[in-house]
Design brief:
By secondary structure, this protein is an alpha+beta fold. The chain has a single domain, classed as Lipocalin (Beta Barrel). Helices cover 15% and strands 34% of the residues. The chain has helices spanning 2-17, 65-71, 87-90; strands at residues 18-20, 75-83, 96-100, 105-110, 115-123, 128-133, 139-148, 154-159, 168-175. The protein has an 8-stranded antiparallel β-barrel. β3 and β4 (105-110) form a beta hairpin. The longest helix is centred in the N-terminal third of the chain and has 16 residues, at 2-17. The protein is globular.
């Protein structure tokens, strides 16, 4: 019963305490330029090549200075996860982290274990974050990002229908280091 109350409070808090990331004007945009723009994935992922490598995502437009400072250069810990109708799946995120780099590459892993590389992009206008985690089989995910009005150390990821994750919500917390496993 207590776990159901926790889930209800987590979802309610995420809707009331979070808002969409503020939109910035063109004046605040980052001076970073991109070389060749690879088209955004609109509805399906770009096909995987025969050697199993995932496509490289790049920003269609450069990130604003605010977004670059917010998303990159830190470790985002998967602090809490809720998967509707399968609460055990939420436990699979314990100890997971992701580091989004300014060059649209990412690193992800669990605690100090094996690190997986990949890439990411964000549509600032829609607050949609797309991740591709490489590995033996690439893992695609897309999230509607909601941020806290009182802190830039918290964001909520709400899964979208695009990769069938619309039953998942994750609370992300900003840290300077990877999570450590409590013995």
């Amino acid at each position: 019963m207590n776990f159901k109350i926790f889930i209800f409070l987590f979802i309610a808090t995420s809707f009331f305490a979070c808002k969409e990331a503020p939109k910035k004007t063109a004046e605040a945009e980052s001076p970073i330029t991109t070389k060749e723009v690879i088209p955004k994935i609109e509805s399906e992922p770009i096909p995987i090549t025969s050697n199993g490598e995932a496509p490289v995502l790049q920003q269609a437009t450069p990130l604003t200075a605010y977004a670059q400072q917010f998303y990159t250069g830190v470790y985002w810990h998967y602090e809490a996860a809720v998967v509707v109708k399968d609460l055990e799946k939420g436990k699979a995120y314990i100890g997971k982290w992701v580091k989004l780099n300014a060059d649209n590459t990412l690193e992800t892993g669990f605690y100090d274990g094996t690190v997986t590389k990949g890439n990411w992009m964000v549509d600032e206008g829609k607050n949609i974050l797309t991740l591709v985690e490489n590995g033996t089989q690439p893992v695609y995910s897309e999230w509607k990002v909601k941020t806290s009005s009182s802190s830039d150390a918290i964001m909520i990821w709400v899964g979208t229908k695009r990769f069938n994750q619309n039953n998942t919500q994750i609370k992300m917390m900003r840290y300077l280091e990877k999570p450590t496993k409590v013995q």
